[in-house]
């Protein structure tokens, strides 16, 4: 069965889902997006993702032509029409077609599209043995220039970092902020375990407020593991007992080596494994049902 894509109020065949070359999403990266997962017939943290999309849009003064409820329904309907119950969902809102200048007022109507696909970010063996990552030279965007809390279509900062990751022959990379503190990975948030406590950089470090990050922080509290949001340096990472990354696509993935330094025992640690299990269970029981 051919996939359909939601595009500006209609569902069109994947091959027919096309946008204008004058769209400012394409010309300038002017827009916002979300990546969401459906597990077992339910959409995980749909409300939180929609809230973050509308928060991104609010900051860039982009008026999404659908209410949050309509956007949620369009997301669910796209999954239904593609007969998917486990999927990755991409929501994109661009400034829409305009002229060749920057002026967003020339863009009369935002473009909205929703794509659903099945994806797997990391090969399964990495969940068992853990990832080896590096720190990249590219610093995370300054919040005073382009706040990383905006999930904007302008991902060049992360793509430059990803190119370094690829050139180093690894799968992910740590990005520092302009002050040199650890911010996040190119597409994931970072957590450490230190003296049995969970530590993650605060949003003010200049990171995307990950939905998976928030879920993991809740789960840790439920499991009686204390969680702190605190700035830390690479030295603190190298001396952590455990390290893992979180993200919608990646879920919870252990990290066992950073810049050639072995983290803890060099194998996914007990707290990481507990949270991986707790997160998987949460995704199976929670979420907005796709069908009624
Ligand atoms: N940081 C960045 C830069 C991201 O792009 C993402 C999303 N892939 C994340 C963190 C993780 O956020 P979430 O858990 O909401 O997917």
Q: Pairing-aware structural class of the strands and helices?
A: alpha+beta
Number of domains: 2
* CATH fold-level name of the largest domain: D-amino Acid Aminotransferase, Chain A, domain 2
The tally of helices reads: 8
Low-pLDDT windows of residues: none
Oligomer: single chain
Q: Percent helix among the residues?
A: 25-40%
Largest sheet: 9 strands, mixed
Order of helices and strands: EEHEEHHEEHEHEEEEHEHEEEHE
Instruction: Quote the average pLDDT.
Output: 97
CATH homologous superfamily name of the largest domain? Answer: D-amino Acid Aminotransferase, subunit A, domain 2
CATH classification, class level of the largest domain: Alpha Beta
- CATH architecture title of the largest domain: Alpha-Beta Barrel
What proportion strand? Answer: 25-35%
- Report the end-to-end length measured between terminal Cα atoms: 23 Å
The hetero compounds bound to this protein are: 4'-deoxy-4'-aminopyridoxal-5'-phosphate
């Amino acid at each position: 069965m051919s996939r359909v894509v939601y595009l500006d109020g209609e569902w069109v065949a994947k091959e027919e889902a096309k946008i204008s070359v004058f769209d400012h999403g394409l010309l300038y990266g002017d827009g916002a997006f979300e990546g969401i997962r459906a597990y077992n017939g339910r959409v995980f943290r749909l409300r939180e993702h929609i809230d973050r999309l509308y928060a991104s849009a609010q900051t860039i003064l982009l008026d999404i032509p659908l209410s949050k409820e309509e956007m949620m329904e369009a997301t669910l309907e796209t999954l239904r029409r593609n007969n998917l119950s486990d999927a990755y969902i991409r929501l994109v809102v661009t400034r829409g077609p305009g002229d060749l200048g920057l002026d967003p007022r020339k863009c009369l109507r935002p473009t909205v599209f929703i794509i659903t696909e099945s994806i797997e970010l990391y090969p399964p063996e990495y969940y068992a043995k853990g990832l080896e990552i590096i720190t990249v030279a590219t610093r995370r965007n300054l919040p005073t220039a382009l706040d990383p809390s905006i999930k904007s279509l302008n991902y060049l900062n992360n793509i430059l970092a990803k190119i370094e990751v690829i050139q180093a022959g690894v799968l992910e990379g740590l990005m520092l902020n302009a002050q040199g503190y650890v911010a996040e990975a190119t597409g994931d948030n970072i957590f450490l375990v230190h003296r049995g406590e969970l530590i993650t950089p605060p949003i003010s470090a200049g990171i995307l407020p990950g939905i998976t990050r928030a879920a993991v922080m809740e789960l840790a509290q439920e499991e009686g593991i204390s969680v702190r949001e605190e700035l830390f340096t690479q030295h603190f990472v190298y001396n952590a007992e455990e390290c893992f990354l979180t993200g919608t696509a990646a879920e919870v993935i252990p990290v066992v080596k950073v810049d050639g330094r072995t983290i803890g025992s060099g194998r996914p640690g007990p707290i990481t494994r507990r949270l991986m299990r707790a997160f998987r269970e949460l995704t199976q029981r929670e979420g907005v049902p796709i069908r009624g």
